[in-house]
Amino acid sequence: MDITSDSNAAPLDPKAANRARFELELEFVQALANPFYLHSLAQQNILEQPAFINFLQYLLYFKEKDYARFIHYPHALHHLELLQHAQFRSQMKKDEFLREYLHQKQFDHWRTWREPTSVNATNPEGMVPEEPEAETKPAL
What we know:
Largest sheet: none
Pfam families: Med31 (PF05669)
Distance between the termini: 84 Å
Subcellular location: Nucleus
Subunit structure: Component of the Mediator complex.
GO molecular function, one term: transcription coregulator activity
Protein name: Mediator of RNA polymerase II transcription subunit 31
């Protein structure tokens, strides 16, 4: 049974509150993988707000190994890193070419990406190895 101070308040359990906060932050970071979302944030002047810039800096903890494992869209971390730079944030606002460039790079990545389990270290092309030719031994 959840105990709350009123019907609209968050649960008093700190563990549940931390989990909910983490899930919201994770969802937001993953949304950063979308170049069109980044452009929308820029057009609304959100990327210029000091509080938002501080929040982006805070979210860099997702680059740590323990947290990065929850990220499903690796471009999110790349875009989060780019958003740390004022020049990128300002370019995102005024340059639709940048949005299209990021979108194309992302598309190219997903188009050529392969399942890691289907590619092994000895066969980087992911092809089925040919059977070795049978050696013929001289009859004794």
